[in-house]
Write a sequence for this structure.
């Protein structure tokens, strides 16, 4: 819990996760989790009141204090406060297993009382957060604003495959609206038919509607009665409403066999463009279905119709241009990268003009927006979250246009893993993407990095070998090999691979920084000496490029720090930290890395200098931005932060603050115990995975082949 004073506004985005008895509360996600793996979403106002009561640690809170902290001091009736208190009491009784109670103090206010939960024979209580993260999507107005998504209470999954089985039959119930609003009722009827047509193309799903829905609609049948009457296992319902100049649809997906609501969400658009509402509602529902339909239910997509031949050609070229954008960025040529990105953006615009909502064009635009690559997108001055939100919306449109589009699935999965830490949702979508297109190189690349983050380095290596067989042209894909084998503890082989790549591109900034960070993270004096010697020898008699000069100087400064003279390194780091805090490093940082990752790598270097306060502060900043850049330095990794830093309670608290990160750490521990990665344990001992001779030979052969 954060340390707000009584009556101070409760800002859910800033409130830390906490526990009450058997319940874990995530304020920023408006989510509660219990020890049996269930989760329940609540209204933001209800969560604000719960936080306000819990932070007083049992002391009374007056109504005025609640209004000040949860309603910003606005005038609200007593009924409004009473309603929220009543909801919390229902949650405590029905979901909280009596972990807490809300007590009314006559003429004083309320207080929260934490209680020990009753024991349930045979049901173990887990302290580990569930694997599914709440869907936390928000839009910022505009033509198709997406906002207010939430998940209904439901059991957790043991794997990323949903309990919903293959070949599901979904019934799309007639969308409802105010019967006195003729135009809205017409939109609802049209949206019902459009939704049914859009969902019909989702792999592993059959859709019914029409007379089947008329037969059961309006009769007040239970979920099981609807299932018995129609044979359907899933139902989609929606209600349309209007407010001022906007239209809204509140949608719900229900498992008819259990009567459990799997998901509910709200989609909005301006009233003048009802087509946007239909489009975005369909894209959102398709996204939710893919998260629940097992990838084994999908069939490899038949070669899709290319549509307009010119649109197809434009997008093919734009995709190749985007690959070159990455290459130019890691080569240290941002101007050329932007020129190529501008060209790719223009070609997607042309493709969409030829074929509206063409999925390949929307996926490319999503990548451009997410990364802020083109001049047009960069000029918008969007925050990282705003860029991600826009990219997410474009990917939903792509899935609505083509629910089998593997590129859209893998791009969405990459957003989940990189910006949401939604590990299981990401894995489910990676499975769907590869089921539809096993040759999707980008899916193999991104999936390998997700697996590595969770400690599954051997599984990540399998994805790397698949990637190697598909597309080994670009450096940013080739360095996946040394990254993964380093995590397996094959340090010498990894360095051989890195230096082999460096021999081909001796002045490449990305490679230079990568090798430097590796040695800095492991506090290797010998490693830094080898790097300096290799660069001095390679450029002997020649003028060293600026990137090489920077790495040699920095390596010497880091060497001095490791040997007890940190002043030179601290001078470099302090200057870069000031630039970071001032926003001067707004687009990319050292060696072509994303700005959000800079805090993590600077933390590694400050740790080298023994400046643990600065290192912890920067690591805190990086984790808040969802950066876990150097996975070998994560808990249980084989290049951990120094012992003195890891012993600091502030450092330890960083990994418990967000339940999704705490879950990743626990998964890494389990993976290390299972021999999936090389691991440094809290007590100081190190374990290495037992690699079969055949796999070890395959790794060494791959390294040798890169020479």
């Amino acid at each position: 819990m954060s340390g707000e004073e009584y009556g101070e506004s409760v800002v859910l985005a800033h409130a830390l996760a906490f526990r009450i008895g058997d319940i874990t509360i995530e304020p920023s996600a408006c989510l509660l989790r219990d020890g049996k793996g269930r989760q329940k979403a609540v209204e933001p106002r209800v969560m604000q009141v719960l936080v306000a009561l819990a932070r007083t640690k049992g002391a009374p809170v007056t109504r005025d204090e609640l209004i000040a902290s949860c309603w910003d001091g606005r005038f609200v009736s007593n009924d409004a406060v009473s309603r929220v208190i009543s909801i919390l009491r229902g949650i405590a009784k029905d979901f909280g297993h009596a972990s807490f109670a809300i007590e009314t103090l006559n003429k004083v206010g309320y207080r929260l009382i934490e209680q020990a939960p009753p024991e349930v024979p045979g049901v173990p209580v887990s302290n580990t957060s569930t694997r599914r993260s709440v869907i936390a999507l928000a839009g910022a107005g505009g033509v198709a604003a997406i906002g207010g998504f939430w998940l209904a209470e439901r059991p957790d999954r043991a794997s990323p495959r949903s309990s919903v089985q293959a070949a599901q039959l979904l019934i799309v119930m007639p969308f409802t609206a105010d019967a006195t609003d003729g135009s809205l009722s017409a939109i609802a009827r049209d949206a019902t038919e459009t939704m049914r047509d859009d969902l019909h193309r989702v792999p592993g799903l059959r859709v019914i509607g029409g007379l089947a829905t008329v037969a059961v609609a309006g009769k007040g049948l239970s979920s099981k009665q609807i299932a018995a009457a129609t044979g359907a296992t899933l139902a989609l319902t929606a209600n349309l409403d209007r407010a001022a100049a906007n239209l809204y649809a509140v949608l719900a997906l229900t498992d008819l066999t259990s009567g459990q609501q799997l998901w509910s969400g709200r989609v909005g658009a301006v009233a003048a463009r009802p087509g946007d509402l239909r489009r975005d509602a369909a894209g959102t529902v398709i996204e939710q279905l893919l998260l629940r339909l097992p990838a084994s239910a999908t069939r490899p997509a038949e070669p899709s119709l290319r549509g307009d031949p010119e649109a197809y050609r434009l997008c093919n070229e734009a995709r190749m241009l985007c690959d070159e954008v990455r290459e130019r960025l890691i080569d240290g040529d941002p101007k050329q990268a932007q020129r190529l990105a501008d060209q790719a953006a223009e070609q997607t615009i042309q493709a969409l003009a030829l074929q509206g909502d063409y999925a390949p064009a929307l996926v490319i635009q999503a990548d451009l927006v997410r990364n802020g690559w083109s001049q047009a997108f960069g000029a918008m001055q969007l925050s990282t979250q705003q860029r991600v939100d826009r990219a997410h919306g474009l990917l939903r449109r792509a899935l609505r246009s083509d629910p089998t589009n593997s590129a859209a699935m893998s791009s969405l999965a990459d957003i989940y893993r990189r910006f949401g830490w939604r590990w299981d949702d990401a894995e489910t979508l990676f499975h769907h993407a590869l089921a539809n297109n096993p040759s999707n190189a980008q899916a193999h690349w991104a999936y390998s990095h997700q697996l590595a983050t969770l400690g599954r380095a051997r599984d990540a290596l399998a994805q790397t070998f698949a990637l190697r067989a598909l597309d080994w042209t670009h450096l940013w894909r080739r360095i996946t090999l040394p990254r993964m084998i380093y995590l397996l503890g094959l340090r010498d082989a990894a360095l051989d691979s890195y230096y082999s790549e460096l021999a081909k591109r001796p002045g490449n900034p990305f490679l230079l920084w990568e090798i430097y960070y590796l040695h800095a993270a492991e506090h290797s004096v010998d490693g830094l000496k080898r790097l300096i010697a290799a660069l001095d020898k390679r450029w002997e008699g020649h003028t060293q490029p600026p990137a090489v000069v920077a790495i040699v100087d920095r390596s010497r400064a880091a060497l001095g720090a490791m040997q007890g003279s940190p002043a030179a390194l601290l001078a470099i780091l302090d200057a870069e930290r000031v630039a970071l805090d001032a926003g001067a490093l707004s687009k990319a940082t050292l060696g072509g890395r994303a700005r959000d990752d800079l805090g993590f790598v600077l933390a590694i270097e400050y740790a080298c200098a023994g400046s643990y306060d600065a290192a912890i502060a920067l690591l805190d900043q990086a984790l808040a931005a969802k950066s876990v850049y150097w996975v070998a330095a994560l808990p249980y990794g084989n290049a951990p932060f120094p012992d003195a830093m890891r012993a600091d309670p502030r450092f330890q608290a960083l990994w418990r603050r967000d339940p999704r990160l705490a879950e990743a750490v626990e998964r890494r521990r389990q993976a290390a115990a299972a021999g999936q990665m090389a691991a440094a344990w809290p007590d100081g001992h190190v374990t290495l995975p037992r690699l079969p001779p055949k796999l070890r030979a395959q790794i060494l052969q791959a390294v040798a082949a890169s020479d």
Residues 1-7, 117-166, 585-590 have pLDDT under 50 and may be disordered. The longest strand covers residues 260-270.
